[in-house]
């Protein structure tokens, strides 16, 4: 970069902004917030207040922000305060957070970030973490907000590798699976006619969740973990956001042996939030059958990507260490790696 294009550290024109940040007030702003997220360029259900309301009072010290130019809402950022108000983190209690906007200009992005930083300094916040949804969630290819954050001194604190299947390609997604995966699906379908896949409806999803949740608990216990959501929380989410979840269960006769729970994150992406499997039935390859059904269903219902989630080795000290075995499995279904990235910035007390 030469001297004619190098910006000053934070020029005066960029410190001043016509945008103001205010705190979200549930009784006043919920409908405005959620309508904005649903009409935005990069919002997901995880950014909506009706989703975040499944958390019991007091679990998080929520601090959601709204950004206005005059009377017009131009951005929101869900989040929470921790460590005695010293740290602002977005998301808090969800998978994805950071700024949600319309398709805004570079100038507006800079103004939004400037207004956010004014709020941060006024509240004596010392650190900020922002984790946005991967780029597959937005229909518009733009990185104006990323640039604005980097310009203001944010940096990438970590990246997780996630995997997604592109459904915009012509034809049946099954035909792009690896040959070994296609062979396994055909083999078990032919050899085990007693296998069947049940798909949830709005009327059956709660009873199906109750039935399959023990499989999820068993699955997680094998890895010394617990599910992100309790059964009660999943049932509450279904009540708050009835269109959020789609559940598929593989049965041998009437017995559930595996399942896939999708969160329909926005109009573009269906997210496999939970795969669950009774390992005694692994020879039936039920997860392979579910990957085939989930991708077909998602494509038929207008989704452009299936997000299979992050692939990290949680046993390693480095949180970015990939689980190559899990990645190898996901790649069998024509998935590609996408980044789930977290930006970070420190604000020493008294800094201007």
Polypeptide structure, described:
- This protein is an alpha+beta fold.
- It folds into 2 domains: 12-153, Gcn5-related N-acetyltransferase (GNAT) (Aminopeptidase, 3-Layer(aba) Sandwich); 164-339, Aminopeptidase (3-Layer(aba) Sandwich).
- Helix content is 31%, strand content 27%.
- The protein contains 10 helices and 15 strands.
- It has an 11-stranded mixed β-sheet, with helices on both faces.
- A hairpin with a 2-residue loop joins strand 11 and strand 12.
- Helix 4 (106-122) crosses helix 5 (144-151) and helix 7 packs antiparallel against helix 8 (231-240).
- The longest helix has 18 residues, at 205-222.
- It is elongated, with a radius of gyration of 22 Å.
- The two termini are 27 Å apart.
- Mean pLDDT is 93; it is low at 1-14.
Short description:
The chain is built from 10 helices and 15 strands.
Which properties best describe this structure?
352 residues, alpha+beta, Aminopeptidase, 2 domains, eleven-stranded mixed sheet, four-stranded antiparallel sheet
